């Protein structure tokens, strides 16, 4: 969530007239994340998050906004998109597709407790059960083909050790048949900054704009890699076990998933290493641009490549 498109006070005032949200009090750009422009917006009717979509187009967005409606209506702690006076949840601002959602209470955590890891695992399992009835479909824009193409696209721009690691991991990943794994709608980006807590109570799952149809196990791997690993890339056993146990209390793991687990963990690490490495190699311009260190995910990938994974 960075600021690539500036919005003035007057522009935002005019934009908000489309919504039954009262008068503008104030707004502030959010400098975290890397994909969209986001602002916190305060009005006389409450607190909101305004998103201008920098890469997604209008045709893609009904899937994400409909999914958020679907999740919130089933009691999960997701933000329901606001609707205009005309009943629309997707409009435009400064030439970009835009949407507003009610700002949820709580804060993200940097150093999660065991209870917070349990709640994330339980909520992820509940999310996978709830999304089974969602009729929308969206291919993973950062899936197998993207990982292959992005990795190949970086080879001419990185050092020899990095090039060898990318090439070897892409060869290893070619052995994984994703079609053997249970599929569904996944969050695909459930990092610590996309979950809100009040103390140890989970109050919000946010930022569904990477959601897609893919392997459910891959979603668990993405989440574990962020929440339950140490800075050197090794798993924190207590947090890892707490999250996995809580997840399994809501959704069981199949034998095919157990067999694929080592490569799925590596694929989840590879995806974020490559995306961060690409952004460092080919930086984007913006008023506030937050780029994350790719080496954190290189260390996770390298650990998974040289150690047997913790069991599911």
UniProtKB/TrEMBL annotation:
Task: Supply one GO BP term.
Answer: threonine biosynthetic process
Q: GO molecular function terms here?
A: ATP binding; homoserine kinase activity
| Pathway annotation | Amino-acid biosynthesis; L-threonine biosynthesis; L-threonine from L-aspartate: step 4/5
* Catalytic reaction annotation: L-homoserine + ATP = O-phospho-L-homoserine + ADP + H(+)
Annotated keywords: Amino-acid biosynthesis, ATP-binding, Kinase, Nucleotide-binding, Threonine biosynthesis, Transferase
EC no. given is 2.7.1.39
InterPro entries from the UniProt entry: Aminoglycoside_PTrfase, Homoserine_kinase_II, Kinase-like_dom_sf, Pseudomonas-type_ThrB
- Domain named Aminoglycoside phosphotransferase is located at 28-251
> Into which family does the record put it?
Belongs to the pseudomonas-type ThrB family.
Name of protein: Homoserine kinase
What is the organism field in this record? Hydrocarboniphaga effusa AP103
Give the gene that encodes this protein.
thrB
């Amino acid at each position: 969530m960075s600021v690539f498109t500036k919005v003035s006070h007057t522009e935002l005032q005019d934009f908000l007239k489309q919504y039954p949200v009262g008068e503008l009090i104030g707004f502030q750009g959010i400098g975290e994340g890397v994909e969209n422009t986001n602002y916190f917006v305060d009005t006389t009717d409450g607190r909101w998050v305004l998103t201008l979509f920098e890469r997604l187009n209008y045709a893609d967005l009904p899937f994400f906004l409909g999914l958020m409606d679907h999740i919130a209506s089933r009691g999960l702690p997701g933000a329901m998109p606001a609707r205009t006076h005309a009943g629309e949840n997707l409009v435009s601002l400064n030439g970009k597709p835009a949407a507003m959602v009610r700002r949820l209470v709580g804060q993200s955590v940097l150093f999660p407790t065991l209870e917070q890891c349990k709640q994330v695992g339980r909520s992820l399992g509940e999310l996978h059960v709830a999304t089974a009835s969602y009729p929308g479909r969206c291919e993973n824009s950062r899936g197998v083909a993207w990982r292959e193409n992005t990795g190949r696209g970086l080879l001419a721009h990185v050092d020899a050790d990095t090039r060898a690691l990318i090439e070897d991991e892409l060869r290893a990943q070619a052995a994984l048949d994703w079609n053997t794994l249970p599929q569904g709608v996944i969050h695909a980006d459930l990092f610590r900054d996309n979950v809100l807590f009040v103390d140890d109570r989970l109050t919000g799952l946010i930022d569904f704009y990477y959601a897609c149809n893919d392997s459910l196990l891959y979603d668990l791997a993405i989440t574990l890699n962020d929440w339950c690993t140490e800075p050197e890339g090794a798993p924190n056993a207590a947090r890892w076990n707490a999250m996995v146990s809580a997840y399994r209390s809501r959704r069981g793991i199949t034998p095919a998933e157990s067999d694929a687990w080592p490569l799925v963990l590596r694929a989840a690490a590879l995806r974020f290493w490559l995306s961060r490495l690409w952004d460092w190699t080919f930086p984007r311009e913006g008023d506030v641009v937050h780029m994350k260190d790719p080496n954190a995910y290189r260390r996770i990938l390298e650990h998974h490549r040289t150690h047997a994974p913790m069991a599911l």
